[in-house]
Structures are given as C-alpha cells and as structure tokens.
Amino acid sequence: MVVPNPLEIVAGFLLVFFVPGYALAKATFPEWRVRGPDGLLRLVELVTLGFVLSVVLTVIVGYALLAAAPGGFQAYWTDPLLEAVLAGIAAIALVGGWFRGAYARIPPAATASDAPFGETGAWELSRELDRLAREERRVRHELRVHGSDPAEARRLRDELDRIDSERSELQRHREAEYAA
Fold first, then answer.
1. Tens of pLDDT along 12-28?
2. What are the C-alpha distances in Å from 114 to residues 22, 79, 170, 180?
3. Dihedral (CA of 74, 79, 83, 86) sign
4. C-alpha to C-alpha distance for 20 and 54, rounded to whole angstroms
5. Which pTM was predicted?
6. Does any domain span residue 1?
7. How crowded is residue 154: how many other Cβ atoms within 10 Å of its Cβ?
8. Number of structural domains, the chain?
9. Is residue 132 within 8 Å of 166, Cβ to Cβ?
10. 147 and 69 fall within a common domain
11. How far is CA 2 from CA 8, 74, 78, 111, 161, in A?
12. Are residues 97 and 125 in the same domain?
C-alpha cells in the first residue's frame, strides 16, 4: 500500500474542491476584483462559486470517467486520472481567464452598472426604479411634514415631478428597446 505524502493530499484536495471552479469563475467573470469597496463581497462570491463549481466539475468528470471506462473508474493515489482531468480543465480555464483579462491589473470591461443610459440590464433598471421609489417616498414624507410652508411645499412638488419624469423616461426608453 502506497501512503501519499501531505503535499499530494493538499494538491488533490485543492484540485477536487477549489482550483477548477475558481479558474472557471474568474474566466466567466473577468471583471470581478477583490479590491475596492465590494472586495470582500467579491472574494466571498469567488470562493463560494469556486467551491461549488469544483464539486460540480468533479461529479461530472467522475461520471464521465465512470461511463467511459469499460471496467469502471476507481480513483487511486497511484492512478490520479480524475485529478489530471481536473487539472486540465483548470489550466484551460486559467488560460481563458488570462486572455479575457481576469488577472490583469485593470478590469477588462465596464460593468453593467457603469454602462451608459439604455445599456443596462434588467437588474440595474430594477435597482434604479427602486432607488427612485425610495426617493419618492422620502419626498412625500417631507411634503406631509413640511407641507405648511408654501416655498418648501413647492420645492418638494418640483422634486416629485423630477422623480416622476425620470422614472417615466427610464420606462419609456426600456419599452422602446423592447419594441425594436
């Protein structure tokens, strides 16, 4: 019986539970950075996604090896076929991520929230509409509280009109995009 050394155990653990998924996540989302105000959130997302994707890849590769092998697939330390395939997937994902700019100092492309008007997705549009709704509730509350002062009431009504026109413009522009 061959006893694996601790380095082989750590390498096998990383290949089965982290590296392929992390490399695939970085290749899929090259603009994610673990620096800046959202750095901790992105780190948690990348580690979690790396773990989950690695487990999924291990199951899929293991099943494919089991189905392809005539006598069945058995993972032994002396025959690390599963780890070799996972290392190949990780290498391909690392190269793909490299070419997509995942490991560059500067992110490869603007994120969807930085896109110009009209080029945002449904998530960003929903967030913007929610922000406008919160702002409208805040202004309506101020109008109820400070509505007795005519100058302040006029300013708040003007702000409500601005919020309403901004929301209408967002909805009109999105409807025009869908109609085209």
1. 889 889 999 999 999 99
2. 25, 49, 16, 23
3. negative
4. 5
5. 0.58
6. no
7. 10
8. 2
9. yes
10. no
11. 12, 16, 8, 50, 77
12. no
